[in-house]
Amino acid sequence: MNTNRYIRQTSLKDFGEKSQDLLLKSRVLVVGAGGLGIPVLQYLNAMGVGTLGIVEGDKIEFSNLQRQVIYTEKDIGRAKLEVISDRLKAQNSNTSIIGHDTFLTRDNAMAIIPDYDIIVDATDNFPTRYLINDACVILGKPFVYGALHGYEAQLSVFNYQNGPTYRCLFPNMPAKEEIPDCNINGVLGVIPGIVGSLQALEVVKIITQKAKVLSGVLLIYNGLDQSFLKINFSGIDENKKIRTLGDYYFPYETETTNSISAAEFHLLMENETPLQVIDVRTADEFQNNHLANTINIPLEEIDSRHMEIDFSNPLYMICQSGNRSRIAQQKLQNSYNKAIIFNVLGGINQYNALLI
Question: Is the dihedral of CA 48, 49, 50, 52 positive or negative?
Fold first, then answer.
């Protein structure tokens, strides 16, 4: 270990070389290399965490740049995992960077998570959080949670030393119409940086055991008035007894509506068969990145512009992750019950992942 590199840490009272050595020996998995994951990874890497795992299957888009500050305009279209891995290695060549070029799913979670001591949730969707929680309960791993909503954010540590789990605070996944979408509602660029830094701090506290960890405490941050609110909550024993993963974690993709996987949709696109594809993302998202020969009708305009669609032919709905397109599909199906309307599961994210 280069003692001079970390001297500002080792000279701290009650930290010293012993704590630095604990960082060096630790293995941390960060799920997501976006707004939250970037500051987590950069600070843990700079501070000397020995092994950092990254789960990320997405590509860099123009709209990412206002909050995902490690990426540049020249990186647009490149795989996030490739770019951030290279820059972390340049920042600290002593860190072992392990890339997992995928999204976390029920099929791979139990293969990836066991190799790490601490899991950081830097995702942007509820299904993945419940998946992380259940896998961590089964494997006895603590995980550090961060979430964003507009100008506000949340932070906590779950499953730490038999403490409360994510399900103790949020027992059930919210209904689909209750789920906020940052693609629609937005997020102020600096907020992920603040919360991601706080997540990194909790990771360091867990590793070194030098301070009280936010276990059983939900920290709510308001960026507009720079206020912090702490809410205590208790564990529920039943939530600590999970022994197997659930049958599925993306219930909105298992409803009795027509759907098509991104892989199947890709084959149709490759066959050059004319398809009627409706992209329901915002006009800005569509302009920055879209599939060829697709029509842009934003979700909020679907009710007023449905007459632009030919319902006599099959219709394929797509968005960034598959959630907005599913809502649009349901809206149109209610009005045109004989129409054949497919939702592309996983949306642009999954489609682009197939092209890597």
Answer: negative
Query: How far, CA to CA in Å, does 195 sit from each of 57, 84, 145, 259, 314?
Result: 22, 19, 10, 35, 44
227-232 and 276-279: which strand pairing?
Answer: unpaired
Contacts of 175 (CB under 8 A, 6+ apart): none
Distance CA 52, CA 171 (A): 30
Reported pTM: 0.74
| Residue 136 is a catalytic residue | no
Q: Which of 118, 119, 319, 332 is catalytic?
A: 319
Q: Cα separation of 129 and 118, whole Å?
A: 14
Q: Where is 39: in which H helix or E strand?
A: helix 37-47
- The span from the CA of 189 to the CA of 287, in Å, is 20
| Pairwise CA distance, residues 231 & 216, whole Å | 8
Backbone angles phi, psi at 280, to 5 degrees: -100, 15
Q: Among the options 76, 182, 217, 242, which is catalytic?
A: 182
> Active-site residue 168, yes or no?
no
Are 122 and 129 within 8 A, CB to CB? no
Euclidean distance between CA atoms 264 and 343, whole angstroms: 12
Higher-confidence residue: 119 or 186?
119
% of the chain surpassing 90 pLDDT? 67
**Dist CA 206 CA 20 (whole Å):** 13
Three-class SS state of 346: coil
**CB-CB neighbours of 115 under 10 Å:** 12
Using a 10 angstrom Cβ sphere, with 0-12 exposed, 13-18 middle and 19 or more buried, the burial of residue 17 is middle
Paired tokens of 71: 């990426």
Q: CA-CA distance, 41 to 33, in Å (whole number)?
A: 8
| Terminal alpha carbon distance of the chain | 36
Q: Is residue 118 within 8 Å of 28, Cβ to Cβ?
A: yes
Is 253's pLDDT higher than 90?
A: no
Q: How many CB atoms lie within 10 A of CB 204?
A: 23
With vertex at residue 92, the alpha carbon angle to CA 34 and CA 59, rounded to the nearest 5 degrees, is 25
The tens digit of pLDDT for each residue in 57-87 reads 888 988 899 999 999 999 998 999 999 999 9
